Amino acid sequence: MGFHQDYITWLMQCISTVSYSFLINEEVLGSGIPSRGIRHGDPLSPYVFIFCGEFLSGMCRKSQLDRKLAGIKVATHSPRINHLLFAYDTMFFVHSDPNSCLTLKTILNDYETASDQMISASKSSITFSAKITPEEKLRIKQTMGIEKEGGIGKYLGLLKHFGRNKKDLFASIVDQIKQKAISLASRQLSQAGKLTMLKSILSLMPTFAMTCFELPGSLCKRIHSTLTTRFWWDPSETKKRICWVSWDKLTKPKNIEGLGFRDIQQFNRALLGKLAWRIVTKPDCLMARTLLEKYCHNKAFLKTTYSASASHGWRGVLKGRDVLIQHLGKVVGNGNSIRLWHDPWLSTSSPKAVEGPLTLDDKDLAVVDVLTRETCIWNRAALEKQFPTLLDEILLLHPSTTGAEDSYAWLQPSSGSYTTKSVYMSLQRKGALQELNARLLASFNWYRFVWNTQAFPKIQVFLWKTIQNVLPTEENLQKKVYSLTQSVLDAENKRLPCISSSIASLHNKYGTWFHGHLPFYPCRLQTLRRNSTDPATV
User: Fold this and answer.
1) How far apart are the C-alpha atoms of 233 and 269, rounded to whole Å?
2) Could you report the per-residue pLDDT of 418-473, keeping only the tens digit for each?
3) Separation CA 341–CA 367 (nearest Å)
4) Looking at the 3D structure of the chain, how many domains does it have?
5) Which tens digit of pLDDT belongs to each residue from 259-290?
6) DSSP class per residue in 257-311
7) Same domain, 406 and 484
8) Do both 51 and 122 map to the same domain?
9) Model pTM score
10) Is residue 8 part of a domain?
11) 315: part of which helix (H) or strand (E)?
12) In terms of residue numbers, what domain contains 73?
């Protein structure tokens, strides 16, 4: 594989100096010293795997430079790609001509010889494009020694091949959550146990799909409904209970009346913003170069607009870009790449750009033009000339004295790094915290009196329900039943002209429901009697 002999000796010493014992019938018998390979789960295993993967990747890159394995590209100016490595999977992209197939077969044979590992043909598959003829497919299969065709089925929970129909792509997500919710509900968990399972398992199941695509709003509502009605409120699939609190209130943080449930749509946007952050901060990475050359060859990424012909994946990236821009700013380094009048560089706490009348001579100025050339500190005379009212604010910023490059920063946390948690919390603050009652926050500390109390978690959830007044008391049940009955009455009155006959039909339909479900909470619906002279109809 091209490694130096000393390096091979060091690595083999790490492997061969370990001794193994064998546990047989609960007794430790014998011992052995490995001469090659390492056990599954060994700390060295990932590093040795990376070495082998780098060797395979290096051979593919060399063949690409020699034009033997050119690869493919998604746009005219985008980079060519002939292989991708993801976890334990490797994908090769080659043309169907015989020379490319033979080159790939030679690379795989060399990899087997060097690593002393054999590639499993039964677990490998080939995916063909639509223009490949059956004769060419047969020739390629015989050359590669692989009979199985791919492109059908799922990979990491998503379809391998999909079109523009988003329903086909995400159809299985809700079904998977429902099945898992039914499985967890069968364990007869308390509300505190359900709270833990909902946060740590159910709400995280669509995470991989949300990191790549924007989930439709209707799908997010279905997921919310499954998490609440199928799991949180209902004790089982066959038993239905009243939903006492709305989903919007449940997703609020614990310090402002909520339970901290994860809002799927907001979390989806925060994850998509991470893709946009990578494109902005690492424009030289393969993903950024491929996407920017395809969709942003005429405009900058932060200013590009939505296109009707764009893929669903790129639309999701732009949604994340819109979230990112809300708190994206620039940190002054050497000042070469920051436009003086256009970029948000004035503050490290919120994105703020210079505002004011702009002349033609000043529109192309950079921050470096208001720095001293020798010491890279602020040129006070230039600042007083350009921004006399912003002088004190600008002097609080500290440019790099070592000539470091300018950089982007997520201005919400003090660290300046983009994290999914910080973005999600900012989206939550934008929605839920705007509705917060300041007097309630000042008068009641939820963490002190509920969540940090020395009590079992199920008691804490009970305290939360008590304070929210969502326990199934007689008064609350009467309110719920009256609300339901009134809605049914309104629907019946619109459909039937006679009010008395409407109430009579309502009694025939729902009278058993009142008596069967409220044996211990007798409900006196006296307000309905004004619609009928016969009390027996209520």
Assistant:
1) 27
2) 888 888 888 877 655 555 554 455 467 778 888 888 888 889 888 888 888 888 88
3) 9
4) 3
5) 888 889 999 999 999 999 999 999 999 999 99
6) TS--PPPHHHHHHHHHHHHHHHHHH-TTSHHHHHHHHHH-SSS-GGG----TT--
7) no
8) yes
9) 0.77
10) no
11) helix 312-325
12) 45-152
